[in-house]
Amino acid sequence: MAESKKEWYVLRAISGKEAKVKELLDAQIKNTNLGNYVSQVLIPSEKIVTTRNGKRVVKERNLYSGYVFIEATLTGEVIHELSNTTNVIDFLRGRSKGSAPESLRQSEVMRMLGAADEINDANEDGFNDFLVGEHVKVTVGPFAGFTGEIVDLDSEKRKLKVEVKIFGRRTPLELEASQVERELAK
């Protein structure tokens, strides 16, 4: 069989069910001959770090809610199989009625893959964004609202040592990057 060029397509899925669609498609690719036609299933997402009750929580958020990206060769029954997968609405198509699924342009693919790579490469807690001598404001905990200066960065523990003035005395605090924000220059 001559290997034709695989292109990227977009499947519209029920919002919130993107991961389930990916799981089903991955199982079909592994267990059926669909693997000959579909090489990748991707849901670009980003990690969001928040603090709840003093604890750091990492959540994943889809960049394109309701969409699943696939790299495939659409021949024969492949379109039918993909669009009839549970929780899939249909392919992203042209505006005219009955039009074929439209592949993404190379620039769109590079942007989508680039965005996914940037997010994976990004430092998830922002620790490396801070410098010794920088002024920060504490946002969480009993010292919230106090401002201080970063005096040390402990890369092993991923903590910042910040000196704040309490009752006129310098007091060192050991904080996570998510517990402080940059103090705007006055």
Characterize the main sheet. 5 strands, antiparallel
Radius of gyration from the alpha-carbon trace, in angstroms: 24 Å
Helix content: 10-25%
Oligomeric state of the chains present here:
single chain
CATH C-level class of the largest domain: Alpha Beta
What is the residue-mean pLDDT, rounded to a whole number?
83
Which architecture of the largest domain does the CATH hierarchy give at level 2? 2-Layer Sandwich
The total strand number stands at: 11
Q: How many domains, in number, for the residues?
A: 2
In the CATH hierarchy, the third-tier topology of the largest domain is known as Alpha-Beta Plaits
Q: Give the CATH superfamily of the largest domain.
A: NusG, N-terminal domain
At a glance:
The protein is α+β, with helices and mostly antiparallel strands and 186 residues long. Helices cover 19% and strands 37% of the residues.
Notes on the structure:
The chain has 186 residues and is an alpha+beta fold. The protein has two domains: 7-121, NusG, N-terminal domain (Alpha-Beta Plaits, 2-Layer Sandwich); 127-182, SH3 type barrels (Roll). The chain has three helices and eleven strands; from the N terminus they run βαββββαβαβββββ. It has helices spanning 18-31, 78-83, 106-121, and strands at 7-13, 38-42, 45-52, 55-62, 67-72, 88-91, 135-138, 147-154, 159-166, 169-175, 180-182. It has a five-stranded antiparallel β-sheet, with no helix packed on it. It has a four-stranded antiparallel β-sheet with strand order 2-5-1-6. The termini are far apart.
